[in-house]
Each structure stands twice: as structure tokens, then as C-alpha cells.
From TrEMBL:
Protein name (database record): Tyrosine phenol-lyase
Keywords, sorted A to Z: Lyase, Plasmid, Pyridoxal phosphate
Domain Aromatic amino acid beta-eliminating lyase/threonine aldolase: 48-424
Short name of any one Pfam family annotated for the protein: Beta_elim_lyase
Cofactor: pyridoxal 5'-phosphate
Entry keyword annotation includes tRNA-binding: no
Database matches in InterPro entries: ArAA_b-elim_lyase/Thr_aldolase, Beta-eliminating_lyase, PyrdxlP-dep_Trfase, PyrdxlP-dep_Trfase_major, PyrdxlP-dep_Trfase_small
Species, as recorded: Streptomyces zhihengii
Length: 469
């Protein structure tokens, strides 16, 4: 009989103590943070599922690699090890290191985007769209409609709708589209993959119109695993080979090594065009550092290079995705409304379905994330209207069809028992959801990327009206 949860392909060598807080302590912490889980101190969090970015546990091989980091300002041997690893597993010729994925997004946007240009993509991501808009571009969502339906079981909800993409090209002109932005997997859709067949079609259509295809490769290894599991014709291929095939269908990639590569910091921009590479190498000096370290210490370059080779090992990626699926299965069995199918890096609770009595303008996902933290000290991430921000032309809140809280699982950090605790808390909050009789209003709203720094207050707050008391 197969085990419900296969054993992890690693053993624990060092532990970090966790602090368990009381409900009263969590109430105080939540108020001090303005009901924004982004502003909580990590010391006040028990199980931190806010993100899998830079929160992973590095291996003994990564730690040992850090000891030989070359901290030379120019031409460090650690850069050349990173360059060799990216070329081997991702296949790109020109690699420019950055301090993290946002640094790569900044370089890509400044090089390619001009005011009045249009960038189609398979659903927005917060920082990616912000970089595109700050450089004068307009993002257009060309993902398939199934991606916006939490209950749809489409195995590749990250696919681009080719008809939508063709209509946009006809409307604005190919010359006004600097590149197609393809995420693998799609974060805001719940970690949903794009198929190899669809990526091939996107590449062919873009090439026909002389448009580049740029990959958000932060979780491309997870995407490769889903292709192996779900797409006909790829089951006998290795994850490493599938990853390389995915990248072959693109002209470049922005990478946050804080995800698939297990590192705590780091990233890179990779391109095939030598002229683009030259521009990026010149620009990186202004914003990051010299083109052979790009804002990273030599020891971190070594950790990323080692992490890249570990990320494509079959047993590692299988354990990673299966742990996420384990939590998803527990919540599905308890009839918690989730984005289906379960994604590669997170389990996403449909907050709009869980709290249908809370109006969208009172931010159900933000409300549910705060309630989950209050119940157990588990920190999730809001991925709904707060993250979506405001429309720049109208000033009105954007209300995406997906109003989610994201339970994001760091790699090699938490055990099956931690997942059980998370499931118990989500289920308990769901049982008591009627206590959340009101949502949250802005007390302070930043202009850009508001979900990081915003503060809230319970809607219609007054005596006896605070659901978080």
C-alpha cells in the first residue's frame, strides 16, 4: 500500500527554534501591524507561509560551497561557476547576475519597455507589472479563462490564450510589443503551470511577428515537473531535460534564485541576444554591481550554482510538490474552497468563497489571512484586491476574479506535522467564518505595491464590532 506522504529525500542536521505565542499576544501583534500580515515581525509568527522566496533551507553542499566563494570585485571565479550552471541547465548564453529576481525585472524593463508599449502575459505578478508600468508600459492579461476559475481542473491553467494574444497584436501592432511575458508557473493563479505545447505555440506566434518571449523562470523547475506528470509525451523525460526544452522556446529569462534554486538571496537575467546582454551588463553596474557579481557576494553566487543542480534532481522536486499536495489534499477533504488543481509552491484558499458575506471592497483575503494568524500564528499571503492595487487611469480598486490567501510552502523547511497544524487552523477558521462579520478598510494606503506597507482597520469599527477581538 503506497504511503499517503512519501518520506523526504533528506534528513535534518540543524534546527531553528520556533516561538509559540498566545492568542492575546497575536491580537496585539496584529493590531500593531495594522492587520497587515506583511508587517508582522517574524518572531511573532509560528509557521511562516508568507512566501517561498529566500526562505528555503540550503543543503550542506550549498553551505560548503559558500566557503569557497571568491569575493573579488571583478571576474570572480564564483561568477563563472554560476554562469556554467545556468548554461548547462537553462541553456542561455549570456548571464547577468542580480541581487534577486526584481533586479532582473528592472533591467529587462528598462532595456525593452518604452512609454506607450504593451506587454502581454499569462496573468500579472505584482512586482513585474509595477516595473512594466513604471517604465511606461501597459500589461495585458492573455491567460486562458480557466485560470480565473478556482474550481476549473484544467491541468495547465498557466497557458496563454493564443486568440487573445493575436487580438492584442492586431490591435496595438507588433512593433509596440517589446516581448511576451511568460510565467512558469503562474504565481497569482495559484502556482499553475504552462504546457510545453502551449509554450511552443506562443514561441511560434511571437516569432512570426518578430516579438521576443521572456520567461519568468523563478519556478520553472516546478513547471517542468508538472509537464512530466501531466502532459502526454513527456513522462519519460527527465525534469532537467524538460526545463532545458522550456527555455529553448524563449529568448531570455528573469530568475529569482530564491525559489527553485533553494538560495536565500540572488537572481539573474539571461538572454540570447548579445546586444541585449551588452546593454544589461552596462545597466547592471548602475543598479546592482559589476556584471560579474551583480549585487551578490561570491559566497551567494556559489550557493545559487550548487542549488541549481540540486533543484532538478527528481527526488527533490517530487518531494517539494508532494508536500504542497499533501496540505492541499487535507484541506480539500475538509471542503475548504481552494484553487484546483493544487499548484507547485502553494495552496490557495478562495477567500471570496470562504467569506461570501464580506464585500470585496472590505478585502476578504486580507481579512481571512488576519483571522488565520490570530487563530494559530500561521502567516499566509494575501493575493487578491489588495495585491492588485488601483487602476492608474480611474483610481479605482482592481478586483481580480481570484481573491485568495496563499499558503506558500518554503522548500525543505517544514515537516508533515507542520502541515497538519496549518490544515487544522484553516479548517477551524473556516468553521467559525461567521464570526468574521466584517472585513477591513484602509487606514494607510501606499501608492505603489500597497500590500507590503498598507495598514488596515476593521470596517465600521466600534464597540463590539471588531471580529478580531
Amino acid at each position: 500500500m503506497p504511503r499517503q506522504h512519501p518520506a523526504e529525500p533528506w534528513r535534518i542536521k540543524m534546527v531553528e527554534p520556533l516561538r509559540v505565542t498566545t492568542r492575546h499576544e497575536r491580537q496585539q501583534a496584529l493590531k500593531e501591524a495594522g492587520y497587515n500580515i506583511s508587517l508582522l515581525r517574524s518572531d511573532d509568527v509560528y509557521i511562516d507561509l508568507y512566501t517561498d522566496s529566500g526562505t528555503n533551507a540550503m543543503s550542506d553542499r550549498q553551505w560548503s560551497a559558500m566557503m569557497v566563494g571568491d569575493e573579488a570585485y571583478a571576474g570572480a571565479r564564483s561568477f563563472y561557476r554560476l554562469e556554467a550552471a545556468v548554461r548547462k541547465y537553462y541553456g542561455y548564453e549570456h548571464i547577468i547576475p542580480t541581487h534577486q529576481g526584481r533586479g532582473a525585472e528592472n533591467l529587462l524593463s528598462r532595456i525593452l519597455i518604452r512609454p506607450g508599449t504593451h506587454i502581454p502575459g499569462n496573468m500579472y505578478f505584482t512586482t513585474t507589472r509595477a516595473h512594466q508600468e513604471l517604465n511606461g508600459g501597459t500589461f495585458h492579461d492573455v491567460i486562458i479563462d480557466e485560470a480565473h476559475d478556482p474550481l476549473d481542473e484544467h491541468p495547465f491553467k498557466g497557458n496563454v490564450d493564443l486568440a487573445k494574444l493575436e487580438r492584442l497584436i492586431a490591435e496595438v501592432g507588433a512593433a509596440n510589443i517589446p516581448y511576451v511575458s511568460v510565467a512558469a508557473t503562474v504565481n497569482m493563479a495559484g502556482g499553475q503551470p504552462i504546457s510545453m505545447a502551449n509554450l511552443t505555440e506562443v514561441r511560434d506566434l511571437a516569432q512570426h511577428h518578430g516579438i521576443a518571449v521572456m520567461l519568468d523562470a523563478a519556478r520553472a523547475v516546478e513547471n517542468a515537473y508538472f509537464i512530466k506528470q501531466r502532459e502526454p509525451g513527456w513522462a519519460t523525460h527527465s525534469v532537467a531535460d524538460i526545463l532545458r526544452e522550456m527555455c529553448e522556446r524563449t529568448d531570455g529569462a528573469a530568475m529569482s534564485s530564491k525559489k527553485d534554486s533553494y538560495a536565500n538571496i540572488g537572481g539573474w537575467l539571461a538572454v540570447r541576444d548579445p546586444q541585449l546582454a551588452e546593454q544589461a551588463r552596462n545597466l547592471v553596474v548602475l543598479y546592482e554591481g559589476l556584471h560579474t557579481y551583480g549585487g551578490m557576494a561570491g559566497r551567494d553566487l556559489e550557493a545559487v550554482a550548487a542549488g541549481i543542480s540540486e533543484s532538478v534532481q527528481e527526488e527533490n522536486i517530487a518531494a517539494r510538490v508532494n508536500q504542497v499536495a499533501y496540505l492541499g489534499d487535507l484541506l480539500t477533504e475538509a471542503d475548504i474552497p481552494l484553487v484546483q488543481p493544487i499548484g507547485g509552491h502553494a495552496v490557495c484558499v478562495d477567500a471570496a468563497a470562504a467569506l461570501p458575506h464580506v464585500p470585496r471592497e472590505q478585502f476578504p483575503a486580507q481579512t481571512l489571512a488576519a483571522a488565520l494568524y490570530l487563530d494559530s500564528g500561521v502567516r499566509a499571503a494575501e493575493r487578491g484586491a489588495v495585491s492588485a492595487g488601483r487602476d492608474h487611469s480611474t483610481g479605482q480598486n482592481r478586483y481580480p476574479r481570484l481573491e485568495l490567501i496563499r499558503l506558500t510552502i518554503p522548500r525543505r523547511v517544514y515537516t508533515q506535522s507542520h502541515m497538519d497544524v496549518v490544515a487544522e487552523s484553516v479548517i477551524q477558521v473556516h468553521k467559525e467564518r461567521d464570526r468574521l462579520h466584517t472585513g477591513l478598510d484602509f487606514a494607510h494606503e501606499p501608492e505603489t505595491l500597497r500590500f507590503f506597507q498598507a495598514r488596515f482597520t476593521p470596517s465600521g469599527s466600534g464597540a463590539g464590532s471588531d471580529p478580531f477581538e
